[in-house]
Amino acid sequence: MTSEFSALLKKLRREANLTQEALAERAGVGVRTIRGLETGERADPRVTTVRLLADALGLRPEERERLLSTAVLRTPGGEVPDAESPAEPPVPPAAGTAPEPTASGPTRSPLHEILADVADQVAQTVAARWRREEEQRQVHDPYPLPVRWRPVAEELTDHWANIRRLPPGSAPAPLELGGQLDAIVDVYRRIPSGRLVVLGRSGSGKTILAVRFALDHLKARGRADTVPVIFSIGSWDPTAITLRDWLAAQLRRDHPGLAAPGPGGTNLAEGLVETGRILPVLDGFDEIADGLRRPALEALNATTLPLLLTSRPAEYTAAVAETDVLTSAAAVELTDLTLDDLAAYLPRTARKARGRAATGWEPVLQALRERPRSQAGTNLAAVLTTPLMVTLARAVHSDAPDGDPAALLDTRHFGTPEELEDHLLDNFVTTAYRPRPGSGPLRAWDPERARHWLGYLAQHLNRLDTPDLEWWRLGYGMRRTTRTLVTALVIGLTVALVDGVVGTLFDSVAYQLLDGLVAGLLTGLLFGIAYWFMVAAKDAAVEPSVVRMRIRGGERRTGRNPLRRLMIGALCGLVFGVGYGFVRGVLNGAIAHTPLPFVLAGSIGDGVLYGLMFALAAGPTFGLLTLFETPLDIRSALNPTSLLRTNGRTVATQLLVWSPVFGVLVGFGSLAVVYPAAAVLGPVVWNLTAALKLGLISGLGGALGYAFSLTSWGQWTVFSRIWLPLTGRLPWSVVAFLEDAYRRGVLRQAGAVYQFRHARLQHHLARGPRAPLRTSAPAGSPRGGPLK
CA 92, CA 108: separation in Å to the nearest integer? Predict the structure, then answer.
């Protein structure tokens, strides 16, 4: 019996002039799958399959949503227009507007209503996040620096007929796209395709423009409009993940509540992306790793998503030369600041000199006006043309008490524009960490040590080739073997300590010291092997959990299958137990000088026994944890520290469940396994005391080993709280240091991750320590009064 989805799929396939075989080949699914979906034999299509079909059919956003809606709802008896009947083509939505249900589709489907409500909540949290970020970066103090643009060369834009969505045979005229910061949304809405590329050299204000675009778009947003979300595209690997999947993953990272199950078995983040409710603002195309920009541009061209893309001109031009322009996209280029812009802005950032209205910036501005061809004037004119360098000059020479701007005219120290830029970058960090009496929440850090730690973080990001400073990956700049050894070492020492302390309740101290060393060595070795195969060998990170643990209460669950978790847990427990029992049997035999044949036989027997014990305990424990998992609140939009705290609480609750349950199951399970096994393996030395001891040590040691190796909070603890501070690469209080760097303006927050204030600052700090140059005026130079 055909359903609404079956009929609609058949209609769309015929409109695309595709056979079932051709559609199957395009979508990468079997012909039998297509046939079953169209006849209704397959009554429950997977959302992933529907997405593949929508991509293969090249559907418009409104058609895509309708296909998804009918797949989710599968409304019996739903009326779908006959495939042969003529129909007017739907009108494309305006740029930045989410598609409304078509007249022939459901009037207001439950899927539409659910996702519309979720989109509203995301819009509120995005607006609040970026308003705080503008305040933190002092964008409005005293007013935003001018950001203006002009159209780019024609070879960097698509045909105007494509941009304007005109029918064949039209003779389109170019759009007027010039403007400035407060008009960016109006300029974007003039583009029918909804695709705009913003080019600008380093520090020219691309990110400021992206933030202002998002906030202004949200301010005027209606319920049917899309939600602009800023994504740092530099972390995207187009060869490993599709654009839509990557966007959904980034949404789940920054809004963990969107990982909650949505209609049709998908999650809310995927639903928002698939139905066109997210307007991607892709910031930093130039920061995509070398060699990946061409496939990234090709992947962008494979979609019809409206978007705004920012990039430095050289990197975008090179990618265009290798493949093609961004399809249907107009492009603009940010222009330099002018002398009038500097004269209006810089004096307002400094205090007036005592007794006169002039500030310390007057000599600098006068030199630029009167001696523009001098060496000092040429250097300054080349440097103070971007918002980045102007804000750095303000921080170093307006905000610092002794930072006289006239020092910028000293050509003895700054003979070239590059030296002047290095001076601003170097002294920005020094100025940011200057002592500030009565500075409130800011901690007193030694500027040299702070720069050393920031340099390590910058090098770490350069090694990972990403701008995103993720707390759960702070140790991932090290080699995989080093990470594995460090993880195994920490787990081994922890288990040895637990075994040594708990074991003294049952045996002598001397015996327990040896037993603790053996237990720690074996546990560290086996967890290290597990960590290598599950994490390090894949060069993957243990991602933060997107669930919370709720032991009491009736909240909805995540929908994860406890049986699957039980099977995985049992398998892991079996492997661990066999290895642990075998190695322990070998060591015991070696210590007792037992003949080799008996050692091997005993070790195999111990491996079987311990394997059964741990399998019977780990399986039910993992399955039980699944029953307590519940999604995070949909309104949750986390910053790095709150995400860390949330994961810490989740792991703590997991340990509170894991430790006693696993310990009890191991202890009593050992009795249930050993005595029947004795009838097969022969006499086994075991009693209630041994079972109780094994249960206590296994419950505590196993829980900690699991937490340190297979949770993001545990990896944070191993590397950021123990190893990196121990080796001097980071301070002991890493969270306090990162938050303080954010408040000082050295770092910024982009959702759940930190980033350096600018990529230029990151790459500069990664070069290593440099001696900051003096910021005071040279002898004989005019000085202003007390500076702001």
Answer: 19
